[in-house]
Amino acid sequence: MTEKHETVLRSASKEVVIGHGRRFCLIGERINPTGRRIFQEQLRNGDMSAIERDVRAQVEGGADVLDVNMGVPLTDEPDLLAKAIRMVQGLTDLPICIDSSVVEALEAGLQAYEGRALVNSVTAEDDRMELILPLVKKYDAAIIALPNDADEIPMEADRRLELVQHVVDVATGEYGIAKGDIVIDPLAMPIGADTTTALTAFETMRRIRDEHGLNMTCGASNVSFGMPDRHSLGAAFLPMAMQAGLTSAIMDVRTPQIVTAVKAADLLLGHDEWGGSWITAHRARQAAVAG
Amino acid sequence: MTPEEILQGLYDETLVGNGPRVLELTHEALGLGMEPQSLLFDALIPSLEEVGARFERGDFFVPEMLIAGRAMAGSMEVLRPLLAETGVQTIGTFLMGTVKGDVHDIGKNLVNIMLEGAGFEVIDLGVQVAPEKFVEKIQEHQPDIVGFSAFLTTTMPMFKANMNALQKAGIRDDVIVMVGGAPVTQEYADAVGADGYAPDASATVKRAKELLEQKRALVSA
User: How far is residue B206's CA from residue B197's CA, in Å, rounded to a whole number?
Assistant: First the structure.
């Protein structure tokens, strides 16, 4: 059987390990201005107060890691991302997933961060890997890699696996990055645009787990884009993906329905010994109601 | 069926995305001698506009929009050659693509269908279109308008990269540039130096026609 790798993330004071056979890692998606016009406007005016609220809500919701994206058009993204990361680190001890497509912003974020970050993300394009992987190595971080290249997002698992192999070869061979520090995004596309996409994603997940033993994450909310009752779809998708080998997700952690579904799947998949976490969460809810 | 019933049927069946029925009705209408333009402007386009309006209101969802678009596209395949024959002029050529780094195409495809319905010849370059590719295709097809689509705040900066590539190739003034996509605003379109922006598919058609008229008025003046 293929060796299963572990991904270790750290803040200044806390460690989170992502791995097969472990409790699923919930990465909070909320600190991201995409599609949030008011938040964008605030950030453009230097008002970062919404971040405080987003951190609190996601910590309370059960996040293990927080994704931080500051992709606001017409701003100095590297500066903004560095500021946001320092701010989030002042508010919580959860490790951070540094999210940008701008290489300078990733570097500014890595510089500002205290600990071992997860970098979001690199594609299988050689020119992108050449820019981003040296930073991952230099700052001792882990990296999310997407199996798509300049031409396409492959719709067949076979082609995605080829690109995974390419990323792994380049990252380990040319940059000396450990396999455990490569987290693959198997690419979960909107189910509303094509009802076969989730099946492709599940097949990709199973094969990445069985053939590479790598950790995986994906943008889980993307799956329900453009559909009604997104929470129910998220709550069904994640347990199915976990069964297929997904070990973390960048997701909506503020919706109890979705988080509870993940926790239930953890128990059912043997990631929660004696149901300790499940029972503890139940007591906490009871106490909250009684209190 | 009377022509009125057929038009109503085309409208209703497009709205629910019943492709086979839309195709049947298209053939039936043509068999009765109805004008292709009438099918297009009195049934198909209004229906797709209603689909767009319902989507905007949150009453319609992505799959419904896609199947309605496909139903109309099926009918268009039959109508397109006839429209060309009957002298309906192509009002302009529109080169369309999602920018490099971005793979979103649902909105872009809907805009394409609406543009085509309105009489544009649409050349779709697909997704992840690099600046050099836009330049190459503009030189090849000489379109009236080029449209850059981006769905992510992280890929919107490619608009500027595309504009720079057009400048560098010396073709910036040969073509009208429109930009669009979920996170794009008029302010951003102005900042990158685009000629036009529209917030949704039907507004894109309107704006494209306006820009085309302005340019032609300028050229003939």
Answer: 11
